[in-house]
Amino acid sequence: MCQATNGPSRVVTKKHRKFFERHLQLLPSSHQGHDVNRMAIIFYSISGLSIFDVNVSAKYGDHLGWMRKHYIKTVLDDTENTAISGFVGSLVMNIPHATTINLPNTLFALLSMIMLRDYEYFETILDKRSLARFVSKCQRPDRGSFVSCLDYKTNCGSSVDSDDLRFCYIAVAILYICGCRSKEDFDEYIDTEKLLGYIMSQQCYNGAFGAHNEPHSGYTSCALSTLALLSSLEKLSDKFKEDTITWLLHRQVSSHGCMKFESELNASYDQSDDGGFQGRENKFADTCYAFWCLNSLHLLTKDWKMLCQTELVTNYLLDRTQKTLTGGFSKNDEEDADLYHSCLGSAALALIEGKFNGELCIPQEIFNDFSKRCCF
Amino acid sequence: MEEYDYSDVKPLPIETDLQDELCRIMYTEDYKRLMGLARALISLNELSPRALQLTAEIIDVAPAFYTIWNYRFNIVRHMMSESEDTVLYLNKELDWLDEVTLNNPKNYQIWSYRQSLLKLHPSPSFKRELPILKLMIDDDSKNYHVWSYRKWCCLFFSDFQHELAYASDLIETDIYNNSAWTHRMFYWVNAKDVISKVELADELQFIMDKIQLVPQNISPWTYLRGFQELFHDRLQWDSKVVDFATTFIGDVLSLPIGSPEDLPEIESSYALEFLAYHWGADPCTRDNAVKAYSLLAIKYDPIRKNLWHHKINNLN
Ligand SMILES: [Zn+2]
Fold it and tell me: Where's the Prenyltransferase alpha-alpha toroid domain (chain A) (predicted)?
């Protein structure tokens, strides 16, 4: 990817592949704290490898049996004996008589299985109805938003968990993978109107989305991706869309014009961030926000590449946060590469190349193949 | 810390060295022991003091383990009903949570757990939450979770009386703190039925003073626009604000648009953008808007030149 027409590529592809591969191997005990969300580690690694054209289904196909073990189905103790199902992040969380599946691990696992091309799993093993029922139980009836897990005993939406746009996005993405496309499809499991109401309530005054009027690129991407998956982007007013495009483009850090006045005064400004994206006003640029901002822009306007001059953000990523020695990408120029920023930095570059499905965060070609093979 | 006896608990050991495992983690012996016990107690749903103690130890090694927060909450709810003094019991739990919060600034479960405790508390108090909020903001003045929690408290306690002063203090420390600026907007949006014209005029003066101090700062300009739109039906101050913004752009509007080198420096691109937005709304001043956007594209904010051209297209 990003192969210049002449001269060698600036992308250290081989190093990146090695970086992602390493995360699928033996990890030191310092990763214990992430054990509960191990599906996230697997997803970021496999997505990163897929972006760099590694045939992950051939390379990791042997691990499908182990992956499938993370899918847990529970028959509820109600009159209809209804079942719910989903994934745990790690088998450590598989505890008898306790419901521990959660939405993020479920989405990460499903996307990983799609990338591993385990189509048999989707066609014959995965129980989409009970999975969708689990999603449905995570919706808060009062607000329309989603929490990420159920009470381990009562199987009602957890009253200890938070609800926000991330979990709304994850819930809708899972249903989309289960085959929901039209509003009627979604309505079979969730209160779509109420969810849309919640999303609209997270619009901020000057464009973009966030909690209580503090706009945030990550939440903005979640909100817009959710609306896109629900085919509901047209619910946004033209003014709000225009304000959001303007807000997103303002997240691109610049060292030119009047912006350079900030270098002496603003402790969260660095001229060398030029071209990169920040998550909020007056923050340093950060690799992951290149993806969140570009994905948001790409959902709002077909002119997104021209508007943000993608060569500038490409330069920021390749020259500033790509780690040419170790592979991977770091959050900024100071830290070491980490898995999350490596995946999202690579994803941003793939999105620019038109090879990436930003709504689901996997390569477009993989999603196309999945849709062709598994039409439910 | 009290020592509890778990010797009668039959642990549910975690399986290790599975075939075809991905991301195999080299667990420490301590982690294996704690998880083995926790899995057993969760499975039995034992709601006891020793279970509570164990959840604290698990949270110490794996704060992202969502079920453990849920489990702890169920233990607290159960033991609270058995304790003689519910308030004291829940306050002790909040004290414990304060310590955990300080050690896990990026964890978000903590904040929703805290909300659940306050909802359970017979006499919750905003004042009790202020010290931990202050410590967390002192540590990271833009921590999104902490700000969201503060806003949740304002709504939960219907108490906004300290918010403007609080935001002012933080803006005093760092005039670029966008979280503090957006907190002001949160204040007005939620308090707007009970505010006077004097308060609004004071707020406008506050914004203008801060812009005067540092004109090239996106936060107060964005806030100014939002504030103006929020109260557009309440106060007529367009000309005052426009005159104010104009003082930051020199005489560039009257100069011919030549090459960037021929144009003088101005104090604030945001002032120019603010004016362009304002002028663009009125057909009589549309030409000014086009010129302002052109100037932004050529010299004052060139990275967004295609955005400015797009704005010009929208005007035509
Ligand atoms: Zn980041």
Answer: 13-354
